[in-house]
Specification:
The complex is a heterodimer of chains A (about 50) and B (about 270).
Chain A: H1 3-26, H2 29-37, H3 42-45
Chain B: H1 4-16, H2 20-25, H3 54-63, H4 71-84, H5 87-91, H6 94-102, H7 114-119, H8 122-137, H9 142-147, H10 149-162, H11 164-168, H12 172-190, H13 194-198, H14 201-207, E1 217-219, H15 229-233, E2 261-263, H16 268-271
Antiparallel strand pairs in B: 1-2
Classes of the chains: A mainly alpha (about 50), B mainly alpha (about 270).
């Protein structure tokens, strides 16, 4: 992969990533992740 | 010899699990940082965990009956991927670090071969079926529930030891997960990064970014003679340096006589003209 091509891919992926994170934050997904993370995950433990 | 990479792995594992009080009380951290995903595989129900597991969060988002694309988690994974690729596996993943420690147990070792190379595709199947398919169809976090040995080791065992109520709920599923964990411990003692190479869906996701990531290793083509010493030396199932199986540990640099392997310069596209 040429350097120029790689640079374009990087720029596009970063833009998409930042856009996704922004959309997610506006959609309160941060709190969705947090609300899951602060509860004990019974499935992860092998109980649920 | 303890390398800088080992220190980085240890530091990452400690920082990501620095709610030390949780190990004593059997209570997990409930602060705002749990809204942030860790880069590596680290169960969010580990008493020490400060951040959330990206795979667990992804499955949890897909499990919801009213499907909504998980933009925040997908964006986070894209960002980690394009920044570091699978370098996360070799430098930042606590479970990767544990696997490397297990490989130090003096037992007969199984080297990479054609079969392990084929087996390295299994993680993509697990990603598709257990991380995406089962949560979408069956409404259960398939990977966390049936496979993830990190969850059993980091959350299941410490929390059931600390909490009598949880201990009372132990059933077949817990026994299954402990069995899976024991199998992986045995495998990782004989096969270098056995879980990482064949099973880990997070590594599978990051592998898509290995060619484009800002950080990682690369070969300077004008210096490379194609002797393949790097590929022979590598314990992962790589066909060439920097491919999907390369975790960018950089250990192959020592065997390259022409010094053709180097860490990528993340500013290459901005400061170099070709």
């Amino acid at each position: 992969m040429s350097r120029d091509k790689r640079g374009v891919y990087r720029a596009v992926i970063i833009l998409v990533a930042v856009a996704f994170i922004a959309i997610g934050l506006f959609g309160n997904e941060f709190f969705d992740v947090m609300s899951k993370g602060v509860m004990i995950c019974l499935e992860c433990m092998g109980i649920g | 010899m303890i390398t800088k990479r080992k220190y980085t792995q240890l530091l990452a594992a400690v920082i990501l699990n620095s709610n030390f009080n949780g190990f004593l009380t059997g209570r997990i951290y409930k602060g705002d940082l749990k809204g942030v995903c860790a880069p590596g595989l680290n169960c969010y129900s580990c008493p020490g965990a400060l951040a959330s597991c990206p795979l667990g969060s992804l499955q949890s988002a897909l499990v919801k009956p009213s499907f909504k694309f998980p933009f925040y988690i997908a964006g986070t994974l894209l960002l980690f991927g394009v920044l570091f690729g699978r370098m996360i596996c070799s430098f930042l993943c606590p479970f990767g670090f544990l696997q490397e420690l297990l490989y130090k147990i003096p037992l007969p070792k199984i080297k990479k071969n054609r079969f392990t190379r084929i087996l390295s595709y299994l993680k993509y199947l697990i990603l598709a079926v257990f991380v995406i398919g089962i949560p979408l169809v069956n409404l259960a976090p398939g990977f966390c529930k049936y496979i993830c040995p990190a969850g059993t080791l980091e959350a299941g065992i410490p929390l059931t030891l600390a909490d009598q109520n949880l201990r009372a709920q132990i059933g077949f599923l817990f026994s299954w997960k402990v069995f899976v964990l024991v199998v992986f411990i045995c495998v990782c003692a004989m096969v270098y990064r056995g879980f990482c190479r064949f099973v880990c869906p997070l590594g599978a996701i990051y592998s898509f970014f290995n060619y484009t990531s800002f950080f990682g290793v690369e070969v300077e083509k004008d210096k490379c003679t194609g002797c393949n010493a790097c590929v022979k030396y590598c314990k992962m199932d790589v066909l060439k340096v920097g491919d999907r199986e390369c975790i960018s540990c950089g250990e192959c640099r020592v065997v390259c006589k022409n010094k053709a392997i180097r860490y990528k310069n993340p500013l290459d596209n901005f400061v170099r003209k070709h």
